[in-house]
Amino acid sequence: MTFDQILERTKPYAIGLVVGLFAAPIIGFNAGWITTTTASTQAVEEGRVAALAGICSSAAGRMASASSTDLATLKGYDNRAKRDELVATIMTDIQVPADILGRVSTSCSRSLS
């Protein structure tokens, strides 16, 4: 077998290797098969915020029913101050890390509106 014949036989494999090395990362990232550290960190933080906001909103429901307050009276833009006051009261009882405290409060307030 001559060197030219070897090159002819390996040419499709070499082209496939080059195209695959170029296309695989593009397809992988766009399809969501590969994630970056930043994306994973953001997903974890969003999960923490959602979980703590759920705890806050359920505590708001319990607090409102204990004080015979209807949560429907807190809905709307005009009642934002009352809603924020209720959320601030609830947030003092929940141990929330300082780095996500604002996001949890905002999310809890939005879930009540």
Distance between the termini: 78 Å
Low-confidence stretches: none
- Main beta sheet strand tally, sense and closure: none
**Which range best describes the helical content: under 10%, 10-25%, 25-40%, 40-55%, 55-70% or over 70%?**
over 70%
Secondary-structure content class: mainly alpha
Let me know the average pLDDT: 82
Sketch the topology as an H/E string, one letter per element.
HHHH
What fraction of the residues are assigned to beta strands by DSSP?
Answer: under 5%
Radius of gyration: 27 Å
What is the β-strand count? 0
Broad shape: rod-shaped
Number of H- or I-type helical stretches: 4
In words, what does this structure look like?
The chain is mostly helical and 113 residues long. The protein has 4 helices and no strands. It has helices spanning 3-31, 37-66, 80-93, 101-112. Helix 2 (37-66) crosses helix 3 (80-93), helix 2 (37-66) crosses helix 4 (101-112) and helix 3 (80-93) packs across helix 4 (101-112). The longest helix has 30 residues, at 37-66. The chain starts with a helix and ends with a helix. The mean pLDDT is 82.
How would you describe this structure in keywords?
113 residues; 4 helices; 75% helix; mainly alpha
